[in-house]
Structure formats: C-alpha cells, structure tokens
Amino acid sequence: MGAPGTANDLANDLADDPADGPADDPGTLRAPGVLRAAAPVAGARILGVGGYRPTRVVGNEEVAGPIDSSDEWIRRRSGIAARRFAGPDESLVTMAAAAAVKALAHAGVAPENVDTLLLATMSHLEQSPPAAPRVAHLVGATHAGAVDLGAACAGFCHALALADGLVRSGHSRYVVVVGAERMSDLIDPADRGTAFLFGDGAGAVVVGPAARPGIGPVVWGADGSRPGAIAHAHGWRDLRSADPPPWPTLRMEGPAVFRWAVETVPRVGREALAAAGVAPEDLAAFVPHQANLRIVDAAADALKLPASVAVARDVVDTGNTSAASVPLALERLLSEGAAGPGGLALLVGFGAGLSFAGQVVELP
What we know:
Helix content is 32%, strand content 22%. It is an alpha/beta fold.
C-alpha cells in the first residue's frame, strides 16, 4: 500500500488487500499501522433504574435548632420537609451497590455482563482508593472497568453521557451509571446556608445497546470563573497545616447560585430538547437536579411545560442528594407510575464548578 490518503482511499486499499481481512467484515479490516476499532451500534438506551434511600428520616425540626430556624422557614426557602441521613452501616459504597443491584434486576442484566461502572460522587471521603471498584466488586461486576467521576451535582448527567458514548461506540455493551452521596458527612450543622439542604442516597441506571437512540445528545458546560460559589470551606492543604485540622464542610453562596440556576437550567433544557429534536409537549417527565423546590418550579415554568409533563419534586422529602438526585427522582417517578416506559424525560444536572449537563432520554 502507498502513503495514507483519505478514508475512502484506505477503504479501497483494504478491499484490495485480502491479507488485511475479508472486505465484507469491517471488524477484521486493519491496514498496517492502523488500529482496529470497536464496532459501533445503532443506539443506546436506559434499560433499568434503581434507587436506595437510607432508613433514617430527618425532619426539619431536627436540623432547625442549630441554625436558629424553623420548619416554616426551611420550607419557604427550599421546599424541603425532610431528608434521609445514612446510618453507620450505610456507607457510600454500600448504598451505591444497593442501587446498582436494583437497576440491574430491573434491566434483566447479569452483573458479570457489565463492562463498565461509572460512579458519580462528590462525598467519597477517601482520595484513594476510588469507590467505584469496590461498588463493582459488591455488585458482582468483577470484570468491569470502574471509575469515579467528579462533577458534583451535575455528575450523574455527565456520567450518563459518557455511558451513552461507550455503548454506541461499541467499547462497552452494558454500563452501570451510579450517583451516590453521603452529604451528611460534609454538612456543618450550624451553617445556616447549607445545613437544611442536603441528604444521602444513591440512584443507578443500566445503559445498553438499542436499535435506535434512546439517549439524546448531551448539552454540557462549565463556568470555572466562580469556583467558590459551592465549595469546601477547607481543602487538603488546610487539613495538613491547621491545628486542629478543620473538617472540609460545604459552603455555598446561596442567592448567587439560585440566580445562576434559574437562568441556566431552562436554557440547558431548551438546548437539550432542540438537540434531541423533541418539543416540550412530547415529554412525559422533567427531572432536574433536586437542589431546591423553588429552582425546580421556576425551571418548569420557564420551559412552559404542559400539565401532562410529570415534574420531579423528590427534593421535598429526600433533600438535595447531589449526584444521586436525578436517578433517585427518576426511579421514584417510574415506581409511582407518574411516568411510564417509552416516555421521554428531560434530565438536567447542575452544581459546583459551576457545571451543568442535560439530555433527553427514553424511559425504561
């Protein structure tokens, strides 16, 4: 063969050279110096959903005292009435594994057939080892690649986009995507800006091949000029240098984040709908990150969703579970019958970074 030319030139060269493989089998064609690629598939879709909510329910009365507040103030500010806090035996890893097991059962996929497990989390307290390999081990996905992903509250939608790409490109047949958090480990009970917002839990989906696309194009982005809008009050350097070392609790610029979210979520939602070729009236459900009920309702109003669209309001009794909130809310809508198989759902994650990601999916 001569020097490399266009893709068509290469294809013609390969077709003329039987030593490189039969021309009617693209999976075996390989020119010298050209790597063989995985065979792509027509589409990917969510095959199953699962969730795990800790046993302990924490009402507003319990969190109101240390911040000199009240149930009425918390409800008015956030719409939250209760949240779940994990107990000593409910680690981030075990909650993630429980959600993944349920998602696999819903999908009808055996754990040993999982090729990749992606875990979106911001509350895993150990820098090393990552949590995903332990989750894969507990699930029984012993041959899977397992990776932690950090995009805070937008992490699940980022991971879902990566899973879609892995399946459609042929690199993985089945991918488990988990969002799991123990936000109670990062709460300062006396911080009036965050103590009442967060909760714990895990949600998961299984993504696999489909005859047509079931996950729309992702719309994502970030604004790295505002890293302090949602951040740890102390970093690793503080833990090493301060005496006594401080705990890395979360701090948030609440009003600024609220203004950013009510502008960003509708914009991302509209762009994701357009990218998927879907109109608001085509939707069965809207599942934004469950940060705050006021943000959820403002986004739904701005998108001009018809009354037929089920809007996830899981935040009311689950709180803000960061990367777990979208899959947990999705699982709830399906389990309660508010949305059904084959319907279309708009997902939008947003949070620290500042970062965001959204896509339209077909429900399992």
